[in-house]
Amino acid sequence: MKGLRTLFALCIATAASALSASTLHAQKAEPLSHSALALAALDRKIADLDTEEMAAKKELSEIGGRIAGARQRTLGRGRSFYKMTRAGLLPVGGGFEGWISHAMRVERNRRLLVSDMEAERKLRMRAAELAQNLERASRDRFAMANQRSAMDT
Fold first, then answer.
1. pTM score, two decimals?
2. Cα-flanking dihedrals φ and ψ of residue 83, to 5°?
């Protein structure tokens, strides 16, 4: 009977040590998988930031030409509007119809000038927004790269 108790105690001790060893191994493997997942997620975020940064740079380079074109249109229409409004009594020389058609051209030119100025303003706002996004993406990418290098060591 005493031998049976010793054998039973030995089996329990062996099972307990095997269980604690497997638990210890599982605990060691779990952080590795978590760190691998964290590295993969960090790499994905860095890749997303790179993609976002490239798209913003491309759009910013394209928007520069559009801003220049809008600026030229605004200046041209502004000159034309100025000349039309400074015509003095010349349109009256064409009679009432001439005067009315001149007034319509002045108003149409004014509306076009206002719309060109608004379009230029929106393009400049978009360019400023893109510049802020590029700056933010650059800061975030730098921080994530530092975090990535810290996780590697």
1. 0.65
2. -65, -40
Radius of gyration of the chain (CA): 37
| CA pair distance 141, 124, nearest whole angstrom | 25
Are the C-beta atoms of 137 and 53 separated by less than 8 Å?
Answer: yes
Q: What is the largest CA-CA distance in the chain?
A: 133
**Over the range 57-69, which residues count as b (16 or more CB within 10 Å of their CB) and which as e?**
eeebeebeeebee
- Residue-wise pLDDT tens digits, 81-132: 999 999 877 887 888 888 899 999 999 999 999 999 999 999 999 999 999 9
Helix axes 2-85, 95-152, angle to 10 degrees: 160
